[in-house]
């Protein structure tokens, strides 16, 4: 745990330094803010690219090994069913909390926002128009494994890995053992790389935070104070619900889990990327005592289907935009919107700024001006910090809960 604590402290220091450096640049050298932001952001880009480099091989090898070692097809179906029931329930609860709190707090009726240039949202408006069932199928079924690897399409890699793992499990040990052993060695080598890459995380955090503060300064928090206050209150309620459910299932071990995942939570918060902590989360969940077969099966699925923070944000932001424009929505319309968001969000996982793309598409569908997305773009980075961290917590709890239900959660933490 010493190394983990050092990393956690290093990230906290980097976070504070990033805010301080960004603030100095914004106030003292405003003419240099844009080039400074562009250059220091490269630290965050390098860190995230280092992580992205190992995600595809890690998902592929761990998932294939996990399923091949299960050998029992019934167990694969059972674990998959439990995971999907958790994902669907958690998504509905997250959407409902966002819907309920945005109606109660009504941030759109009291927030006085400056008129934003709709051109800032042009890319999002374009990318949201083409979503259909055909896109969902194409996004899920790989045309080529190599293309899926090259573009880091986790859901496509998961589909191929499950089929390949099931095929290996049915080949018999004589044929499959050498392949499974090879993939197992590769997976452990990649997890070893995770340890090296994570020590670059503080630099990534410093770069990401300094860039945003240098460009926006601290005044942005004053303008969006009500929106941010209400959104983070809603996130706190969601955390309370998730942790309560986690405690009912895991008991006092929940606190041990939170200690384990504190560094991944902080990295996700600082870099606004839940993807950036995927390899570290795999490592920490296995150390916590989750069965590596369950982890390698559920966690990649969770990254496509179990994004609790993003789900809550979708209803919150959509109704907020409607409130800003003075559009009243009936209870029936809002429940319909919740169900639409539930379905469309599952087909667009992995798309950059996916939450915003879905919000734009949903607003268009319900007669809310989609250009309203420009109103929340300036503050989206800070909202993304909260929702990325919540996504990580949701997936850690889902994996631990299913491990417990399967009787596959070790009482004594393992070393990986």
Automatic annotation (TrEMBL):
One of its GO terms (cellular component) is plasma membrane. It is found in: Cell membrane. One of its GO terms (biological process) is dicarboxylic acid transport. The keyword Transport applies. The keyword Cell membrane applies. It is a multi-pass membrane protein. One of its GO terms (molecular function) is symporter activity. This is Na+/H+-dicarboxylate symporter. Keywords: Cell membrane, Membrane, Symport, Transmembrane, Transmembrane helix, Transport. Gene3D superfamilies: Sodium:dicarboxylate symporter. The chain crosses the membrane at residues 7-26, 46-71, 83-105, 154-172, 193-215, 231-250, 319-344, 356-379. Pfam families: SDF.
């Amino acid at each position: 745990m010493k190394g983990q604590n050092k990393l956690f402290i290093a990230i906290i220091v980097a976070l504070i330094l990033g805010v301080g450096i960004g603030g100095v640049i914004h106030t003292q050298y405003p003419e240099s803010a844009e080039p400074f932001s562009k250059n220091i952001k490269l630290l965050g880009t390098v860190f995230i690219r280092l992580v992205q480099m190992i995600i595809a091989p890690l998902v592929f090898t761990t998932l294939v090994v996990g399923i091949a070692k299960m050998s029992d097809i019934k167990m694969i179906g059972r674990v998959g069913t439990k995971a999907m029931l958790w994902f669907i329930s958690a998504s509905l609860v997250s959407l409902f909390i966002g819907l309920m709190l945005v109606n109660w707090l009504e941030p759109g009726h009291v927030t006085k926002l400056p008129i934003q240039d709709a051109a800032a949202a042009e890319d999002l408006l374009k990318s949201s128009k083409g979503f259909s069932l055909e896109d969902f199928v194409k996004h899920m079924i790989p045309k080529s494994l190599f293309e899926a690897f090259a573009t880091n399409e986790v859901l496509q890699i998961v589909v191929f890995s499950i089929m390949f793992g099931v095929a290996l499990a049915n080949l018999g040990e004589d044929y499959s053992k050498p392949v499974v052993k090879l993939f197992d060695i590769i997976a452990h080598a990649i997890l070893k790389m995770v340890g090296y890459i994570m020590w670059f995380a503080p630099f990534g955090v410093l770069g990401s935070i300094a860039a945003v503060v240098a460009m926006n300064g601290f005044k942005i928090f004053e303008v969006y104070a009500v929106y941010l206050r209400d959104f983070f209150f809603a996130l706190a309620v969601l955390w309370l619900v998730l942790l309560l459910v986690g405690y009912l299932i895991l008991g006092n071990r929940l606190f041990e889990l939170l200690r384990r995942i504190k560094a991944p939570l902080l990295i996700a918060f600082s870099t606004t990327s839940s993807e950036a902590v995927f390899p570290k989360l795999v490592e920490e969940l296995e150390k916590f005592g989750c069965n590596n077969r369950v982890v390698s099966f559920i966690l990649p699925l969770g990254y496509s289907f179990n994004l609790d923070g993003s789900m809550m944000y979708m209803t919150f932001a959509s109704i907020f935009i409607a409130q800003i424009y003075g559009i009243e929505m009936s209870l029936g319309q809002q429940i319909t919107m919740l169900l639409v968001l539930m379905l469309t969000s599952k087909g667009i996982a992995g798309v950059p700024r996916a939450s915003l793309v879905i919000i734009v598409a949903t607003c268009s569908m319900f007669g809310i001006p989609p250009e309203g997305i420009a109103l929340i773009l300036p503050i989206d980075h800070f909202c993304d910090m909260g929702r990325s961290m919540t996504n990580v917590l949701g997936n850690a709890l889902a994996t631990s809960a299913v491990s417990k239900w399967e009787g596959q959660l070790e009482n004594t933490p393992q070393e990986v």
